[in-house]
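Weekly structure sync, notes
Attendees: PL (lead), two postdocs, one rotation student
Agenda item 3: pending single-chain targets
PL asked that the sequence for the first pending target be pasted directly into the notes so everyone works from the same version. It is reproduced below exactly as submitted, 441 residues in total.
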Amino acid sequence: MVKEQESSILRDTSIAWARRSYHRLHMEHHLTTLANGLRVITHTMPTTRSVAIGVWVDTGSRDEFGAEAGASHFLEHLLFKGSDDWSARKISETFDGIGARHNAFTSKEYTCFWTRMRDEDLPVGLEVLAEMVQRPAFREHEIDSERSVVLEEINMNEDDPTDVAHEQFITALWSGHPLSPPILGTKESITTMSRDTIHDYWKRRYSPKSTVIAIAGHLPDDIDHQVEALFGRWEGPDLTRDLIPPTVSANVQVRRRDTEQAHLVFGSPAFPRDDERRFALMLADHVLGGGMSSRLFHEIREERGLAYAVHSFRLPFTDAGASAIYVGTTPSQTDEVLRIVRHEIDELIAHGLTDEELERAKGHVKGALAIGLEDAQSRMTRLGRAELTGLEHLTVDETVARISSVDQAEILDAVKGAYAGPKVIGAVGPFDADDLMEHIG
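Predicted structure, written out during the meeting:
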């Protein structure tokens, strides 16, 4: 194993940073920390002609209080409105003028602004992102116009019963915990959110100390200096986040609607993001409901024709996690579907996977991992998310080795830890919570 190497302190103008280089197997990335606390992590892909940049900020819906509900996502929209020197139109025209793709997303724990472009246009992409993140104008008329856009997004979410069922599941699972509120906020919170509230949230949560800039692709030798020139004088406070593992009890949360299809999310509390059992759980999750060869897909859709869509998924966060299954089915078949789900989970807890299933799952996960990291965008995302959330940076080869080493004992331990806890249901359909209570006993 190659050790992490510390180099000497480098100085450029008045700014100093400590540079650490990582060389592991077939992947190389560099982590640089500027004097203001900003982390810059880069990965060079010499055979590509594109570059992906992500500005990852350690703030999401769990960091909001009271009137700030939805502020993280609202800010994601508003930063594209620009600064005093850059209008929203100028930002759009600049990106369009170089053929760049650009967007942003908000989660419960972080926000990311990203762009992808030709390698020679890297300085332009960096300049636009630097202006957006560090110097937003927060013009009143633009806040009001974007407020309407966010409200329409909430309406769209409310019209999608699948989204509502997932929100009901999270509410049932983590009621009262900071992970529970919706990322979009509520109609009331967005309607009443003032410019001062938005500005103060940005000032409190957007800081070089809470930000990672991840860049992957065909990079110039002076990439660190380019980032330092644009972000090196940014100032901001240290950030804290209270981590309180939630207490989960068996619960059912239903949004009653006279729909043609019932939307069900069934699950249990599981592991935080950095739990070592995550590799084994990834494999078990694939066998349970991760694909067209999974147990749930075969039993519910292929054998019985009870659903068009059925899949399992994981929700990993810093201090909590969940394992869950989504099914969309005819309301009259809800009880039968939930009984099958419970049976398949109980079988998994009691017996784990067969040797054939385990090897097939390993092959799938390793193949998907390799294919998914072939472009600059996916490499940037992997690096940025891991650095921001504190996960160890594993190369593809190291991750494959870890997956390959998972044995049946690890599978059973992970399955029991992830699926044996209190059962929780979130649902949308023409029934009440009492109608589903028997399935969580």
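Discussion points:
- Residues 1-27 have pLDDT under 50 and may be disordered.
- The first strand starts at residue 5 and ends at 6.
Action: rotation student to compare against the earlier draft before next sync.
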